[in-house]
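Hi R.,

As promised on Friday, here is the backbone we talked about, encoded as structure tokens. Could you run it through your design pipeline when you get a chance and send me back a sequence?
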């Protein structure tokens, strides 16, 4: 849904969103574009990514093949964006994989390495090259990293995914002072269970079944968490409305992790 001209919160800004060919990234790309941003979808799902970019509108959205585990491809994607649109204001490090579902005693370390390569190496590469581009052009940019409630509470996700998301928050916290010296903000978003293709691949459930389970476990009743809720959080962190927010992990879980911690302490 397009925003009115008076409500364009990203007008004139340029954003890269990794993993934006589907799921949370796609929802965010559509919302950013609706608010006036020019968006580069960086993904490995070429057909999906090109289709999403075309449906948003090729005047405001482009697709660039990018495997974020390959630093050279990340660097090239940043260069492509700056050359095409003249700047880079927002880097949303959204790409991710579920990874192996085995517990730690049965974990294949090669699969763990792959999971860490996507979430950790990929996030570092995106932060690194986005920050260089922003600093070179004097952009007071915003970098957003996709973490998870799994980084706050055990038994929410498989161990490899949990380890990776803890590391993503570590990247944000470790970079906040260095980037802040150049006027660049960096924050995380940590959502609860959202019905996306990534989650379907883990348990084979339909969107309705995922939403039903999420509602069943939710603390905040009467609201269903959807991709749009996460996209709205990214919009806030990308916009000038959050111009003095950096080093923050914005949790979107309806109070679930806080309530569970309180319950444990009460017992």
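Update: got your reply. Pasting your designed sequence below so it's all in one thread:
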């Amino acid at each position: 849904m397009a925003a009115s001209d008076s409500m364009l919160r990203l007008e004139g800004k340029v954003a890269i969103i990794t993993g934006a060919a589907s799921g949370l990234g796609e929802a965010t790309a559509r919302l950013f574009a609706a608010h006036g941003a020019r968006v580069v979808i960086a993904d490995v799902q070429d057909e999906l990514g090109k289709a999403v970019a075309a449906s948003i509108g090729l005047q405001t959205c482009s697709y660039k093949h990018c495997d974020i585990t390959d630093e050279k491809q990340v660097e090239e994607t940043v260069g492509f964006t700056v050359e095409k649109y003249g700047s880079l204001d927002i880097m949303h490090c959204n790409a991710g994989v579920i990874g192996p579902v085995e517990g730690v005693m049965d974990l294949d370390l090669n699969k763990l390495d792959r999971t860490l390569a996507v979430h950790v190496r990929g996030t570092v590469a995106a932060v690194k090259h986005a920050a260089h581009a922003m600093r070179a052009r004097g952009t007071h940019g915003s970098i957003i990293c996709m973490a998870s409630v799994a980084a706050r509470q055990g038994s929410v996700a498989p161990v490899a995914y949990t380890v990776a998301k803890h590391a993503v928050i570590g990247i944000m916290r470790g970079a906040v002072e260095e980037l802040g010296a150049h006027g660049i903000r960096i924050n995380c978003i940590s959502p609860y269970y959202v019905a996306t293709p990534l989650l379907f691949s883990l348990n084979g459930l339909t969107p309705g079944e995922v939403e039903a389970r999420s509602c069943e476990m939710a603390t905040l009743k009467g609201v269903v968490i959807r991709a749009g809720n996460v996209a709205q959080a990214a919009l806030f962190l990308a916009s000038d409305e959050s111009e003095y927010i950096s080093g923050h992990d914005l949790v979107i879980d309806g109070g679930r992790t806080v309530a569970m911690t309180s319950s444990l302490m009460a017992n």
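One thing I noticed while checking it: Residues 109-136 form the longest helix (28 residues).

Thanks again,
M.
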